[in-house]
Amino acid sequence: MVIKVFLASSSGSTAIKKKQQDVVGFLEALKVEYTPLDIACNEDNRMWMRENVPSEKKPSNGIPLPPQIFNEEGYCGDYETFFNAKEDNLVYSFLGLDPPPGSKEALQAEKSAVKENGTHVEETSTEENLDKSRSEEVPVEERNGKAHREGEEQDTIEEVEGEATEDRAVGLEEALAEGEEEEAVEETEDAEARAGEYEEEEEADEDKEEDDQPVSEEEQDLHSEEEEELRQLEEEDEAEAVEEEEEDDVDETKEDE
Q: Alpha-carbon torsion 101, 102, 108, 113, what sign?
């Protein structure tokens, strides 16, 4: 089988050139032998391509554009169908070739064949039968005992988890209570401090009011009398001191004589 790829070597369209390079490069990467046929320099190639592309695959204007891919005389497709086959790992099926052993497409084909032949269903049934036979071999008492042990283990786990949850809740409540007590102590200390400051301010205000309170006439009279008495006492003390000095002077004069 010969894969034919119809190309336009002198195409002015960048998109067409890119599509042609994509097809050719991928075929070369897969090591698929192909024959490039130029429709730009060979009129026979161009006419053959147009005549052999199925009418339902042609565009609305009736002129198919390169690249177009054939397997001998059979039409494979254009760039779009080639790209879709490449994305689905079905390039060999697209080209009408058998996929090489070990390729992704060959592995997919094997899986599809297995499902179609029912091998997968048979294997599943065999595994189910083996499981069933194993369960039948185990005595009923052992199965019930195992189920009972599993139930007890589950109950124990639930009890442990419940106790752990209760412990966490109690710890959280204690932490909250301690936090509330600390806050209450702090609030009490703040209240006492504010009360002391308030008392000091009141005492200072009372002292200030006493200082600022006007003196009555009686108090003024008493104050004047006290000052008068003090003045008289001072004058008497001074008179006595003068008399003593005079007496001393008289005594000295007498002694001199």
A: positive
Backbone CA torsion sign across 17, 19, 23, 25: positive
Q: What is the pLDDT along the chain (257 residues), one digit of tens a residue?
A: 789 999 999 888 899 999 999 999 999 999 999 999 999 999 999 999 999 999 999 999 889 999 999 999 999 999 999 999 999 999 999 999 999 888 888 888 888 777 767 655 445 455 555 565 555 555 555 555 555 566 666 665 666 566 655 566 555 566 556 666 666 557 767 767 776 676 777 676 666 665 555 556 666 666 677 777 777 887 887 877 777 777 777 677 666 65
End-to-end CA distance of the chain: 180
Identity at 51, one-letter amino acid code: E
On whether the pTM is more than 0.85, the answer is no
Would you call 168 helix, strand, or coil by DSSP?
helix
Alpha-carbon gap, residue 121 to 143, rounded angstroms: 29
Q: Are 94 and 82 in contact (CB under 8 A)?
A: yes
Would the CA dihedral through 6, 2, 74, 83 be positive or negative?
A: negative
Quote the CA–CA distance of 86 and 92 in Å, as a whole number.
9
- Determine how β-strand 3-7 pairs with β-strand 68-71: antiparallel
Give every CB contact of residue 68 below 8 A, 6+ residues apart in sequence: 5, 6, 49, 53, 75, 77, 78
Which are the contacts of 5, defined by CB distance < 8 A and separation ≥ 6? 20, 23, 24, 27, 34, 35, 36, 37, 67, 68, 69, 70
Written as six digits, the tokens of 243 are 């008399």
